Amino acid sequence: MSKIPATPPMLSGATVRLEPLQHTHCAALAEAVQDGQLWTVWCTTVPRPEQMQAEIDRRLALQDAGSMLPYTVINTADNRVVGMTSYMNIDRNVPRVEIGSTWYAASAQRTGLNTEAKTLLLTHAFETMGCSVVELRTHFLNQRSRKAIERLGAKLDGVLRSHMRMADGSLRDTCVYSIIATEWPAVKMHLQHGLRRV
Which terminus of the chain is less hemmed in, N or C, by CB atoms within 10 Å? Predict the structure, then answer.
């Protein structure tokens, strides 16, 4: 029987809190996405402020369908909403999840917040939900995202060529990374060491 829940639990760390996504987060998320005008980065898929309500509806519909557990990311230093992330493409039979559909306000990037958020998600996936593997994906040309995923300790499984259509009509080559359960203890130590240095 799968240990992956139907709704996401709250996950909290020293600098970040992952709250289950709610409609009441819409205004704060719309404000956060304007920090850096994140929707203009061509190799990512981030909603515009006026699209945030539709994006929340989309993610919550996927939650209802059992394929996503979406979160709002909050910086605990000032209790400010700084982004979104999720468990997605959930397969309860393996079980496996992908951590994705993630974006952060520009002021929250390169602060250690992403590392702690990913550590919380990975710890919960492996140690509570009993996942055999956790996957992370990004655009082949998104070097910043690829380096961030590799710093976590994930390994490149391969590249899905012409995998998906971007908003501008271009086809995306998708890099697929993963961490498997047997690798998790070493990856966890690596992440905890990195967080102590932040």
Answer: N
